[in-house]
Amino acid sequence: MQITEEFIELIAHEQTLNKEQCKILNLSYPPSFTWDKEILDKEILKNDANRLMLLKGKLAIKAQEQILKNYNMVLKFNNIKTKVENVNNQDDEEHIRIYCDGACSGNPGLAGSGLAIYSNHKNPVLLHGDFVENGTNNIAELNALYQALIIAKQTSSENIITIFSDSKYSIDCITTWAYGWKAKGWTKKGGEIKNLELIKKTHELYERIKDLIEIKHVKGHAGIEGNELADRMAVTAIKEKTINYEMYSYDKKEDVLSLTSY
After folding, report:
1. Torsion sign (Cα): 96, 125, 257, 101
2. Residue 6, phi then psi, degrees to nearest 5
3. CA-CA distance, 166 to 221, in Å (whole number)?
4. Contacts for 2 with CB less than 8 Å, ≥ 6 apart
């Protein structure tokens, strides 16, 4: 559903929102003076709209959390899938996980991005691309996240698609900081926003599909298979100077994992 002025009046208490409401709407807390303009015309899920209305009021944090727990319990009792509940681990249901990573030889220097896309227990699809001759690690990470979002948008799945990145910078840029920058006309205190155009287009895509996905931080170079495979693909993009994303052919994952990592 689309957020209207009437709906904003329904969820606001004394012209503001509480912490859990801000979290649902991806707003900073406490919200800015222009929070209502930031969310006007925004698309949200019906379940999130229900949560926002139930959370209305000056409530203690524990009370807010309990309201959400009760609502999720009702959904679960009625067999309704929701973004915040765990999805059943049944083999016949498709669960898509996308690991994305960036690499840079020198910083700045040659940069590339890689992805490992999992669907249930099948071998992951590996992609490498977005070679940049004079890039940075942050650019490579943002490019990888942007490509992961594109793939998620193009993928038809009944379940939430999970995207994993080891870059807190790219995750925070797109899911948190961008809202404050956007509210101030894409400016920030203390100087320029680096990689602004890349951040803007990635955030715009995130806004369009955020109800269909979740983005999680994963520790880099910690032996997590998907992250390690995405890392090898990012390095491959640099070595092969792959600009457009290409699929990497392999027989065994162990062979890919044995490739050089930066």
Report:
1. negative
2. -65, -40
3. 9
4. 41, 42, 43
All domains of the chain, ordered by start, with CATH?
5-77 (no CATH), 96-257 (3.30.420.10)
Q: How far apart are CA 84 and CA 71, in angstroms?
A: 11
Task: Give the predicted TM-score (pTM) of the model.
Answer: 0.66
Output the CA angle 133-139-140, nearest 5 degrees: 75
Per-residue pLDDT reduced to its tens digit, 58-72: 888 888 888 888 777
Start-to-end Cα distance in the chain: 45
pLDDT digits (tens, 9 = 90+) for 204-242: 999 999 999 999 999 999 999 999 999 999 999 999 999
CB 102 within 8 A of CB 143: yes
Q: Is the pLDDT of residue 185 over 80?
A: yes
**Alpha carbon separation from 105 to 123, 211, 226, 234, 262 (Å, rounded):** 28, 35, 21, 11, 7
Residue matched to tokens 């996308």: 98
Listed in sequence order, the DSSP H helices in the chain are 5-11, 19-24, 35-39, 46-54, 61-77, 137-154, 168-172, 178-183, 196-209, 225-240, 253-257
| Residue 82 CB partners (closer than 8 Å, separation 6+) | 47, 72, 75
